[in-house]
Write a structure and sequence with these properties.
The protein is an all-alpha fold. It has four helices and no strands.
């Protein structure tokens, strides 16, 4: 039972960490980024479930454990070699004070007076 609780806490912590990293890319596009993140997350779950069911049918529980270790080693290898998507390079620099100022509303000129 303790293992289940610890695994759930770890998954939730990774989820929150990943989302905060994704939100740093474009804070103004949170809803689109959340949609993309959750779709990719769900597809990873689908691929993991389908592949583990197939591996279990072929080689049993030990094969599933071996496949899990294999996927984990590949992920760690990609992370260590930084062959992952370059999130740091995609971050936008902080806005300058002039760019952060709110835009003034457009003022209508005499030529625009009759237009809707």
């Amino acid at each position: 039972m303790l293992g289940i609780v610890l695994l759930d806490l770890a998954v939730q912590g990774a989820h929150i960490s990943n989302q905060s990293e994704v939100y740093r890319l474009r804070p103004e596009a949170r809803s689109r980024l959340t949609t993309a993140y959750m779709c990719v997350n769900f597809m990873g779950g689908v691929v993991g479930s389908a592949s583990s069911a197939w591996v279990y049918g072929v080689g049993g529980w030990s094969a599933v454990c071996s496949a899990g270790v294999g996927f984990s080693l590949v992920a760690i290898g990609l992370w260590l070699t930084e062959a992952r998507w370059p999130l740091r390079a995609m971050r936008h620099p902080p806005p300058t004070p002039a760019a952060a100022a709110p835009l003034e509303p457009a003022v209508a000129t005499h030529r625009d007076a009759g237009r809707p």
